[in-house]
Design brief:
The complex is a heterotrimer.
Chain A: H1 2-11, H2 13-30, H3 32-35, H4 66-102, H5 104-119, H6 122-133, H7 137-164, H8 167-174, H9 179-190, H10 192-215, H11 226-233, H12 242-245, H13 247-278
Helix pairs in contact in A: 2-4, 2-13, 4-5, 4-7, 4-10, 4-11, 4-13, 5-7, 6-7, 7-10, 8-9, 10-11, 10-13, 11-13
Chain B: H1 2-38, H2 43-46, H3 57-68, H4 73-81, E1 87-88, E2 93-94, H5 95-130, H6 135-148, H7 152-166, H8 184-222, H9 225-232, H10 237-274, H11 280-289, H12 293-321, H13 323-327
Antiparallel strand pairs in B: 1-2
Chain C: E1 3-13, E2 18-29, E3 34-38, H1 45-51, E4 60-68, E5 71-72, H2 78-84, E6 89-92, H3 106-117, H4 122-135, H5 140-143, H6 152-164, E7 170-174, H7 182-197, E8 201-206, H8 209-215, E9 218-223, E10 226-232, H9 235-238, H10 243-251, E11 270-277, E12 283-290, H11 318-321, E13 327-329, E14 332-334, E15 343-354, E16 357-368, E17 372-377, H12 383-391, E18 398-403, E19 406-407, H13 408-422, E20 423-426, H14 430-433, H15 440-451, H16 457-470, H17 477-480, H18 489-501, E21 507-511, H19 519-536, E22 539-544, H20 547-553, E23 556-561, E24 564-570, H21 571-576, H22 581-590, H23 620-624, E25 630-632, E26 637-639, H24 656-664
Parallel strand pairs in C: 3-8, 3-9, 6-7, 7-8, 17-22, 17-23, 20-21, 21-22
Antiparallel strand pairs in C: 1-2, 1-4, 4-5, 9-10, 10-14, 11-12, 13-14, 15-16, 15-18, 18-19, 23-24, 24-26, 25-26
Helix pairs in contact in C: 3-4, 3-6, 4-6, 7-24, 13-15, 15-16, 15-18, 16-18, 18-19
The chains are: A mainly alpha, B mainly alpha, C alpha/beta.
């Protein structure tokens, strides 16, 4: 079964392009500090300089090297997306499993909580929090994760309820396995497709949020971000500089989001029919 | 008699959901109410600090009083519902008025783009699923997936650069040309002219999601046994497609729509800002730039509650269109 | 509507293979008749139904003709089909509730065809639909509900109403009574019969042989896309000609039969048609049958010859070679090179006398390949004599014997050993049946040695081990070296069974094989014999005095009385409704009821019926004249009685119990 999943993934053009793109971008983001020639906060360069061999993308209005900015900005965006995705995933899986395993009061309480959280529009809370408390980007990432775990928890819970009734779990119980053992060795691995899909969806949303929020100026101004670059570049759209200052962050951001979207789409395509029949 | 009992039971079952929404609304109101108390340090100086706005002593005192008065939550609620939402010192106008001016524009843009993309996306998805496997369908799915990968920011900027800057076909900012007196029809045209790019941006941003979802759920529905029965009944293809299949494919779309709303609002925010479109988005952007707390609070609270209401309405809508939910627990 | 389907083939093209669903099927349906289409999953029944509606998927390739009332529909486009769908031909699909749209009300869905095909207003259509549903005993409240609110039985009735709403001249029903409770089943059956009486053409697709047997005028048996047999409906369970039909009947849990489920040996899932290069490089289109154990070089079963061959109990070498056409045989049409179920053994008017005592009067017996025939009777009735004659051990004084079509006496004279290898005998007392000087190995290997079937010691040994594992005995050397006195009776009897099987016989004669065993062991041994019979495709002649055992294992039952066969017929029918008073008496005493009078045969031989003195419905002629054999039509039963308890009179229809169900029907709502 796993073999033909791998095969269908490998054959899927979306998966391949998304994975390829993702790997390239991840590399750029990860190796950013080493690839960048200058410190992006360094403001001593002459502003509005067009690209040259020294500064591949030129220099922005504050005297900072755009290319370095770009690399650091990408890094931050990717980081934010990954951190939020992973956190939301962990919380969601924990809650979902707990609900499905313990049922009863735990299930009721947690699910009600999830419903309330679902009802609250995340972006508004983020804006409020960012505007007034100026939290670090880590904090914001955690806040976003805290607001987005409910969808994952619901999906995990639904599937876990089904898996719980399968024969091999009952057999393990008959053999004397403890709850923890069953959860760890049997249930967690079963729900693997859900993790991938959930993570991809949340990471995508988080990166999108990060770009939007930094565009709106809600992040720490000293933090480099693609959204922030766009925001500063936009007023100068009528100058020639738009193509090396405005476009690169747009381009990179688009590619980032695109790669995660493609991955998410292909994962859903491959795993979903099976999930659907189980749910 | 029996149906009356059933109605009662229906309403009772709906209670937990209504409760959840009610609680969420209350939580937000309370958070907003107690926000100033949580702000670090002296919030008055924090506000307006990085902006050009300066307050004279009197205004500062007013502001401080407004925020430090030990209003009770009940009083706060009463004020809220009677539309007393504070005063913006940056824009020198009551918050309510600012919101009321910006709201119609946002409704026009957001509402219109949503509606159009939903309708077109749904129809296109239905037709695509019907022609599953054809070159047209594959092209459609491919292009829509590709489009979905482009964030609103990207589309907005690109469209802006191409059509506004480069080609000059559309204006770069605003919702209508100011300082010009025009008659009704001309005004309408002018508005549309300004609306075009932001509308197109949002439309392109929302369309792929709707299309793919519609197509996906339609493909699932077409596999169902009762579709074959409908075909066997000799029904015309159009009827099978819409009265039977699409009708069932609609259900997951309604659910997903609710989940995506908050997501969509962010995008709208960004787009309005880029085009300097005078809706709530730009208002919020400007408010954040000057750290005008009352205005920010007002907008955030208002939009949150609207989103909550929309979600609640969607829940009821779903229950209405899916008879299985009506009678299930 | 007249339906003529000729040489209809359907192939489903998938990515690598092509699935052969129907292979040149011919079918003719007429108004006012119910035709049952019987077969297992993978036989192509549903594909055939869908072909008649034009509902095959786009990936299906078809060949052949379908004419509905003379109009050629094969290859017709969707528009042409749509004109006749539902109004001229309607289908009730499987999986009841899945056929209704969950978001439309039941009433609307039933009215929908009216709105589409007939030029009526919405109000008229709804009223009409409501009437139709009312006839199906659904209340106005129920029909305004949504599908998920109704029970399975209610939905099935609603679906039936929907199918019949346009009064189509042809109706296809796919498993209409599956998963239904008895009441609803009866109701649905009654509606179907009513439809038939109205002159509709009805195609009933089902795997429920009971239903098919009771309702169908004609039954068509499909196997892997080919028609194996067409026969009158009532013959389905009692007089099948094709071995597959017989095997199907045995596999089906039925209220009519008591026999334990048999199953069919081997299996086959579906047929694929593809081209792959043969070893000589040529590419030839051919078909393969995919089963669990396939035995061909490329992993497929042999493509030529009869499809059923690998699972058939009576296949002969030519079955592998030639393709088999459908051939006429009386009221039946059979696809079998042997003309249907072959007669394994035939005894005609065989007699045996010992001095003055007539052990066996002129008796006829016919054993069909693959069946189990139980011979019951009291001690001294001549059972053993008959069995031994059948096995070729005793020679009858008169009469003829034919085994597998050959004259047995002739065969015996020519080469007895070859005949001996084809008949295995199991005796009553295992201790007597073996030499105590022989070890287990010797006992089992003896027939092989005598008949010189295997050239060397090694192959003999292998064969012995093989057959020992068949009877579930150990194959270790230690066991092989044991002597009979070291084994218990059950094990010893199994050794004897192994011995009977070692030469690969086609007929097994078992003379009270379990009578001298403990009850717990009896069950095991009996079960083993039965399983082996199915696995090896043997014909079993089982002698017993125990009616309970006979009931459990026999396809047919024969009752011997004083050397004469007084009744023979399908076991369930004979047990339920014995025709001969003696049989009735035997059944009574088997049930533990003390018979009214003793049934001893100590009375001096009379010229008439030996049972007459004790028979309570004997007439004058019973004492003087022994009755001739009469054949009862219904279930092909043989009786020798002047005044049989049941006869072919109308009203004594074996299907009567079914119609009782139908008559009670359902109350309102």
């Amino acid at each position: 079964m796993r073999l033909d999943i791998r095969r269908s993934l490998m054959n899927d053009p979306w998966f391949l392009s998304g994975a390829l793109l993702g790997l390239v971008l991840a590399f750029l983001a990860g190796a950013g500090p080493w690839l960048a020639q200058y410190n992006p906060h360094d403001m001593r360069f002459p502003p509005f300089t067009p690209p040259s061999s020294d500064h591949w993308l030129g220099i922005n209005d504050g005297g900072m090297d755009i290319f370095s900015e770009l690399l650091y900005g990408m890094r931050n965006t990717v980081w934010f997306g990954l951190a939020t995705g992973v956190s939301a995933l962990c919380i969601g899986v924990l809650v979902g499993m707990a609900c499905a395993w313990f049922r009863g009061v735990t299930d009721q309480v947690l699910m009600r909580l999830a419903e309330i959280l679902l009802a609250i529009p995340a972006v508004m809370i983020l804006i409020l929090a960012a505007a007034f408390f100026r939290p670090s980007s880590w904090m914001l990432s955690m806040v976003l994760a805290a607001l987005s775990w409910p969808t994952i928890a619901k999906a995990v819970r639904a599937q876990a309820l089904v898996v719980r009734k399968t024969l091999h779990i009952q057999a393990a119980r008959q053999m004397g396995a403890s709850g923890g053992y069953i959860l760890l060795r049997h249930m967690v691995p079963e729900l693997f497709p859900l993790y991938l899909i959930g993570f991809a969806a949340k990471a995508r949303m988080a990166m999108f949020m990060e770009a939007s929020l930094s565009f709106l100026g809600l992040f720490d101004p000293s933090r480099k971000s693609l959204g922030m670059m766009i925001r500063y570049a936009l007023p100068y759209y009528y100058l020639d500089i738009w193509w090396n200052w405005l476009l690169p962050p747009i381009f990179c951001l688009t590619l980032l989001i695109m790669s995660v979207t493609f991955l998410a789409v292909s994962l859903e395509k491959v795993f979903d029919p099976r999930l659907k029949e189980a749910l | 008699m029996e149906s009356v009992m059933r109605q009662k039971r229906k309403r009772i079952r709906r209670l937990p959901q209504v409760l959840a929404y009610g609680l969420a609304a209350l939580a937000m109101l309370y958070a907003s109410y107690s926000l100033p108390r949580w702000l670090p340090g002296d919030f008055v100086t924090a506000m307006y600090a990085s902006s050009h706005v300066t307050l004279n002593a009197e205004q500062e005192a007013e502001l401080r009083a407004y925020y430090t008065q030990q209003k009770r939550f009940g009083r706060y609620l009463a004020d809220f519902f009677s539309l007393q939402w504070g005063y913006s010192y940056a824009f020198l106008s009551p918050v309510v008025r600012l919101i009321r001016e910006a709201l119609p524009w946002t409704l026009l843009l957001l509402g219109g783009a949503h509606l159009l993309s939903m309708c077109l996306g749904f129809l296109a998805g239905v037709e695509a699923a019907w022609r599953r496997g054809s070159a047209l369908e594959k092209a459609g799915v491919g292009s829509m997936t590709f489009l979905e990968g482009i964030p609103e920011i990207g589309t907005a900027v690109i469209l802006f650069l191409v059509f506004s800057l480069h080609l000059g076909w559309f204006p770069a900012a605003g919702s209508e040309t100011v300082y010009l007196e025009r008659s009704g029809a001309q005004r309408l045209l002018d508005v549309l002219h300004h609306l075009a790019l932001p509308f197109l941006t949002l439309f392109l941003a929302y369309l792929p999601g709707n299309f793919l979802l519609s197509r996906g759920s339609m493909v699932m529905v077409l596999k169902a046994q009762f579709i074959e029965t409908a075909r066997a009944k000799g029904l015309p293809p159009l009827r099978i497609r819409y009265a039977h299949a699409a009708r069932n494919a609609l259900l997951p779309m309604v659910t997903r729509f609710g989940l995506r709303i908050a997501f969509m609002v962010t995008g709208a925010l960004v787009v309005e800002t880029i085009y300097a479109y005078p809706g709530l988005g730009t208002l919020l952007f400007n408010a954040i730039a000057v750290r005008d707390l009352p205005l920010i609070q007002g907008i955030v609270l208002f939009s949150s509650l609207v989103i909550l209401l929309v979600n609640l309405a969607l829940e009821f809508l779903y229950g209405w269109i899916d008879p299985r939910v009506k009678h299930a627990s | 509507m007249n339906v003529a389907m000729d040489h209809w083939s359907v192939i489903y093209r998938e990515k690598e293979h092509a699935l052969l669903a129907l292979d040149q099927v011919g079918l003719h349906l007429f108004p006012g008749r119910i035709t049952a289409l019987v077969g297992e999953s993978g036989s192509g029944k549903t594909t055939l139904g869908k072909s008649l509606m034009g509902l095959l998927p786009g990936s299906a390739e078809t060949k052949g003709r379908i004419r509905l009332d003379g109009q050629e529909m094969a290859g017709a486009d969707e528009a042409a089909w749509n004109k006749i769908r539902w109004s001229k031909i309607a289908m009730l699909f499987q999986n009841g509730p899945a056929n209704l749209n969950p978001v439309h009300r039941v009433l609307d869905q039933v009215a929908e065809p009216l709105l589409q095909h007939a030029l009526v207003s919405r109000a008229e259509a709804t009223a009409e639909a409501e009437k139709a549903l009312f006839r199906m005993k659904l209340s106005p409240d129920q029909i305004r509900r949504f599908p998920h609110e109704l029970s399975g039985g209610e939905i099935q009735r609603a679906l039936l109403a929907m199918t019949l709403i346009l009064e189509p001249p042809m109706v296809i029903l796919d498993e209409p009574t599956a998963a239904l409770d008895a009441m609803t089943k009866g109701f649905v059956s009654r509606i179907i019969l009513e439809a038939r009486d109205q002159g509709k053409t009805i195609l009933l697709i089902t795997h429920d042989l009971d239903l098919a047997g009771k309702m169908a005028d004609e039954a068509v048996v499909l196997y892997l896309g080919q028609v194996m047999e067409t026969l009158p409906g009532k013959d389905l369970l009692v007089n099948p000609y094709h071995p597959y039909t017989l095997a199907l009947g045995r596999s089906y849990p039925s209220m009519e039969m008591h026999r334990d489920l048999g199953g069919i040996r081997g299996d086959a899932f579906y047929r694929i048609a593809h081209r792959h290069p043969e070893r000589n490089g040529a590419v030839r289109p051919h078909t393969h049958v995919i089963g669990a154990e396939t035995a061909h070089e490329d992993g497929h079963l042999h493509p030529k010859g009869c499809l059923f061959q690998s699972r058939c109990t009576q296949s002969i070498p030519v079955c592998l070679e030639k393709g088999v056409p459908l051939m006429e045989a009386g009221h039946h049409r059979v696809r079998c090179l042997r003309g249907g179920i072959a007669v394994q053994l035939e005894l005609q008017q065989v007699e045996k006398r010992y001095g003055n005592l007539t052990a066996l009067g002129p008796t006829d017996l016919r054993l069909r390949a693959g069946e189990t025939f139980c011979l019951v009777g009291e001690t001294g009735s001549g059972k053993t004599t008959l069995a031994m004659i059948a096995a070729g051990i005793l020679h009858p004084d008169q009469g003829h014997r034919r085994f597998e079509g050959r004259d047995m006496d002739h065969w015996i004279r020519e080469s007895y050993r070859t005949l001996a290898g084809k008949i295995g005998v199991i005796y009553q007392n295992p201790a007597d049946a073996v030499s105590h000087r022989f070890s287990v190995f010797d006992i089992v290997a003896e027939p092989l040695k005598i008949q010189k079937r295997y050239p060397d010691k090694e192959s003999i040994r292998r064969r012995v081990l093989e057959v020992l594992s068949d009877v579930r005995l150990p194959t270790e050397t230690a066991f092989l070296q044991r002597y009979p006195h070291e084994l218990n009776m059950g094990a010893l009897q199994r050794v004897c069974i192994a011995r009977a099987l070692v030469s690969g016989p086609t007929l097994l004669v078992a003379d009270e094989p379990t009578s001298s065993l403990d009850p717990s062991v009896q069950a095991k041994v009996l079960k083993r014999i039965l399983d082996l019979q199915i696995e090896k495709g043997l014909t079993l002649l089982f002698i017993t005095h125990d009616l309970g055992v006979a009931r459990k294992i026999g396809d047919r039952l024969g009752v011997l009385l004083a050397g004469k066969l007084v009744e023979a017929g399908p076991t369930a029918q004979v047990m339920r409704r014995p025709a001969h008073p003696y049989t009735a008496l035997l059944i009574e005493s088997a049930r533990g009821q003390i018979p009214a009078a003793s049934a001893g045969t100590n009375a001096p031989p009379v010229t008439g019926c030996p049972f007459a003195p004790t028979c309570h419905c004997a007439g004058k002629d019973c004492l003087t004249r022994f009755p001739e054999t009469t054949r009862m039509e219904k279930d092909r039963r043989l009786v020798r009685c002047h005044y049989p308890l049941h006869s072919d009179s109308p009203g004594a229809d074996p299907g009567a119990s079914g119609s009782d169900e139908m008559k009670t029907g359902l109350g309102a709502g």
